[in-house]
Amino acid sequence: MTTAPVRLLIHGASGRMGQALLRLAGDQAGLQVVAAVQRRIGQRVVDGIPHFAGSELPGVPAFDAAIDFSLPEGFDPVLALCAARGAAFVSGTTGISDAQRQALRDASQRIPVLWASNFSLGVAVLDELVERAAAALDGWDCDIVESHHTQKKDAPSGTALSLGEAAARGGAQPRYASLRAGDIVGEHLVQFAAAGERIELVHRATNRDIFARGALVAAVRLAGRPAGLYRVRDLL
Ligand code: NAD
Questions:
Q1: Which CATH code for domain 121-205?
Q2: What is the CATH number of domain 6-115+210-235?
Q3: Is the distance from CB of 67 to CB of 15 less than 8 angstroms?
Q4: Rounded CA gap, 154 and 165, in Å?
Q5: How far is the CA of 198 from the centre of ligand 1 (A)?
Q6: Cβ of 156 below 6 Å from ligand 1
Q7: Higher pLDDT, residue 234 or 134
Q8: Calpha distance 129→167 (Å, rounded)
Q9: What is the pTM of this model?
Q10: ipTM higher than 0.90?
Q11: Residue-wise pLDDT tens digits, 6-35
């Protein structure tokens, strides 16, 4: 039996992540990109894929799932469109507000939703290690140091904040430091320190393709699932 491919909308198409998603989508079985949306439009059709400006979002053709890697100001309209169209919503946009997190929870009553600050398998595992370490190291200092390229807008990074939530679940009280330098794709160091000893857990992303591939797999697996709030580890 053959199943129809998941019709995918890519939101934030002209960005670093959007370009990686468009380049890698062809390698991912079971999906077809039907629309690419970016803030301002250049060419109408690129490699056979229709492109739309953000203002044209309400008129995009039918789709089953959207992947959003844009900016907080682009996030609300695409989430609302997915809820209205009954499409799955996958987002990696960081720096979103508490109200936008609440909008994700509200939408998850109607559609399958996955928001993640990081789509790499390595960070999903690091998250679990940090929670376990924090629970075992009562009273130790916990510091999270993140480094990214100079174009990154939010700080601390969404991944640092998620790792901090994991540390807090284990009982630690994390502090944050952010570095912006060169073209660093993403590095996260979680340090636990006490008198006379120190543990360092580090994740280094050297290529943003890992995030794009994770999001593409997630979109294929999320489309058609029951409404709800999903996590990366539920799908990868
Ligand atoms: P970028 O600045 O290179 O690209 C942003 C894209 O969003 C552009 O295509 C722009 O046209 C589009 N956009 C902005 N405002 C818009 C609007 N109002 N309507 C429609 N489109 C709009 O950014 P990037 O490096 O590609 O990162 C995008 C987001 O993804 C950031 O929030 C970043 O922190 C996050 N990110 C997440 C992960 C993860 O694994 N979750 C990994 C890397 C980056």
A1: 3.30.360.10
A2: 3.40.50.720
A3: no
A4: 17
A5: 35
A6: no
A7: 134
A8: 9
A9: 0.93
A10: yes
A11: 999 999 999 999 999 999 999 999 999 999
Which residue's alpha carbon is at the smallest distance from atom 22 of ligand 1? 39
pLDDT in tens, 130-178: 999 999 999 999 999 999 999 999 999 999 999 999 999 999 999 999 9
Q: For residue 220, give the DSSP letter.
A: H
User: How many A from CA of 200 to the centre of ligand 1?
Assistant: 30
**Residue 38: C-alpha distances to residues 34, 61, 89 (Å):** 14, 15, 17
Residue count of the chain, please give it.
236
The dihedral of CA 123, 128, 132, 138: what is its sign? Answer: positive
From the list 8, 215, 9, the residue with the least C-alpha distance to 115 is 215
Average pLDDT, the chain: 96
Show the tokens assigned to 53. Answer: 């400006």
pLDDT band at 234 (very low <50, low <70, confident <90, very high): confident
- Closest by CA position to 203, among listed 163, 155, 149: 163
Token pair recorded at residue 164: 């901090």
Domain limits of the chain? 6-115+210-235, 121-205
Q: Which atom of ligand 1 is nearest to the CA of 120?
A: 40
